[in-house]
Design brief:
Blueprint (H helix, E strand, L loop, with lengths): L2 H27 L16 H16 L4 E4 L3 E6 L3 E10 L17 E3 L2 E3 L3 H21 L5 E8 L7 H9 L5 E4 L2 E2 L3 E4 L1 E8 L8 E6 L5 E2 L2 E7 L11 E5 L3 E7 L3 E2 L9 H11 L5 H14 L20 E10 L2 E10 L5 H12 L5 E8 L2 E2 L5 H14 L6 E3 L11 E3 L2 E2 L19 E3 H23 L4
Parallel strand pairs: 3-6, 3-7, 7-22, 8-23, 9-21
Antiparallel strand pairs: 1-2, 2-6, 4-5, 5-24, 9-20, 10-18, 10-19, 11-13, 12-16, 13-15, 14-15, 17-18
Helix pairs in contact: 1-3, 1-9, 3-9, 5-6, 8-9
The structure holds zinc ion.
The site of zinc ion (ZN) has 5 residues, from helix 3.
Length: 469
């Protein structure tokens, strides 16, 4: 089939299936697939399990062989001449909805073609597209050299143990793309370093409680502080709500949710609270010292005041975001999420942070380190993705690097690819991003992404079998 004929067949397929695609997205977003306590047959909780069953039911309806691996990763596939396979790997789990939704986050809304619900852009619409991609080639009766397998993870947001499980038990794909971000293709991802700054034990302080955040990678829009009264005056602030409760004040800071990899896109409520407390001189001694350190963490998204700011020629500068805070056993605990370029190491980061902690006291607890990766942007596989993107959009599809962490980093030959547009410039103000409130994408983004992915799989078959069929 020439690429022209293929392109026309895809267009016809998309117009035939448009309504069904939106309906299937609606079915998936209705499932509250946030990770929870493990249950029988549900290692990540009943929500992710229900999503796994729902995608398999859709695959079955399309007549595609499907099932799951260890109750962790779903699959559907189209057999090729070889059992070796090209994979897509999307995910069905979601982060908690958070605040700021104008309607139920679990009910798909269509506002002028914009589809809104938790999971639309991260990553349920993409999961539905991966099925329709298989359906397209099945209806065309294509027999590819390589099998095409759509993998559906259910633990992407909480550490990707689903991918680890899969790799430990099954042969890896010859190439994998993960439609869990935006176009064009991503050939490199920053390292991720997550941990806690833990204060020393403070028994003579004023803070009774301080808590905020739901996940290490989600910028919180609310932070809550309960603090004893003292010889300080509280100035009014648009972002801080103060309630006098007799012995103590209750404070609520408000900001805007966002993704830790792109801290400039959110408005961290913890940062606002820390700044307010310091501006009003509410603390003394060890508590104040620790808050000054927190302010160093929060007041620059590039880690400048922690002494970790850096960049290199392949990646955008390091980002640093502190997204959860708590108080336990008389200690304040500030979680952080750092995305770092390939030119530095996690041990250097830990060393710099410990250096900052030393005068204040307290500990650094390292929670997670995930080395980044950088593939050759000129490989035949990356070229296959680039060509597909350029053919559909007419824009440059040169592969890039990012601070987002996707399944791609788990596989030897892999890239993140789609499904969001390259820029959010045309997003109206009422549409939010992944991990934020009012998360959404336009129907045309979704349908264009399907066409790009179908062309990409066709290109990949050529690229990997070393010939134009
Ligand atoms: Zn995702």
């Amino acid at each position: 089939m020439t690429k022209e004929i293929l392109s026309r067949s895809i267009d016809a397929f998309i117009s035939r299936n448009k309504e069904a695609i939106i309906q299937d997205i609606g079915t998936l977003v209705a499932i509250e697939s946030v990770r929870s306590e493990p249950a029988e047959g549900a290692p990540y909780g009943v929500g992710p399990r229900a999503a796994l069953d729902a995608i398999c039911a859709m695959a079955e309806r399309m007549g595609l062989p499907s099932g799951n691996y260890g109750d962790r990763v779903g699959y559907a596939e189209l057999a090729g001449e070889s059992p070796q396979y090209i994979a897509s790997f999307s995910h069905l789990d979601i982060v908690p909805p958070g605040n700021g939704w104008k309607a139920s986050p679990y009910q798909l809304r269509n506002i002028d073609g914009w589809l809104l619900a938790r999971g639309v852009s991260d990553d349920k619409a993409a999961s539905v597209l991966c099925l329709y991609l298989l359906k397209f080639f099945q209806e065309e009766g294509v027999k590819f050299p390589y099998t095409v397998r759509a993998l559906f993870g259910t633990d992407e947001e909480c550490g990707m143990s689903d991918a680890d499980y899969y790799l430990a038990h099954y042969e890896p794909p010859v190439f994998l793309f993960t439609p869990d971000g935006s176009f064009p293709a991503v050939c490199g991802e920053k390292g991720i370093f997550q941990g806690d700054l833990v204060s020393k034990e403070i028994t003579d302080g004023r803070i009774v409680d301080f808590h905020s955040g739901s996940a290490s990678n989600v910028i919180p829009d609310k932070a809550y502080l309960t603090i004893k009264k003292g010889d300080y005056q509280l100035k009014p602030d648009d972002h801080i709500q103060v309630t006098d409760e007799g012995e103590v004040y209750s404070l609520v800071a408000s900001g805007k949710c966002g993704h830790a990899a792109y801290p400039e896109g959110g408005d961290n409520a913890i940062a606002r609270m820390v700044r307010y407390v310091l501006d009003n001189d509410m603390l003394q001694g060890d508590e104040k010292d620790f808050f000054l350190l927190l302010d160093d963490l929060h007041r620059d998204h590039g880690g400048k005041y922690l002494g970790i700011a850096c960049s290199d020629d392949r990646f955008t500068p390091l980002t640093c975001s502190g997204d959860m805070v708590s108080r336990k056993d008389n200690r304040l605990i500030q979680n952080f999420d750092i995305r770092y370029p390939a030119s530095i190491t996690d041990s250097w980061l830990a060393e710099q942070i410990r250096e900052k902690l030393r005068p204040v006291g307290g500990d650094l607890v390292v929670r997670m380190v995930d080395q980044g990766f950088c593939m050759d942007a000129d490989s035949p596989e990356m070229k296959a993705l680039q060509d597909a993107y350029e053919a559909v959009t007419g824009k440059s599809g040169t592969p890039r690097t990012t601070g987002g962490g996707s399944y791609a980093r788990k596989f030897k030959n892999a890239a993140a690819f789609g499904i969001g547009p390259e820029t959010k410039a045309d997003f109206p103000a009422f549409v939010g991003g992944g991990h934020g409130a009012e998360e959404g994408l336009h129907t045309h983004h979704i349908l264009d992404a399907l066409k790009i992915m179908i062309l990409a799989v066709d290109n990949l078959q050529d690229a990997l079998s070393g010939e134009a069929r």
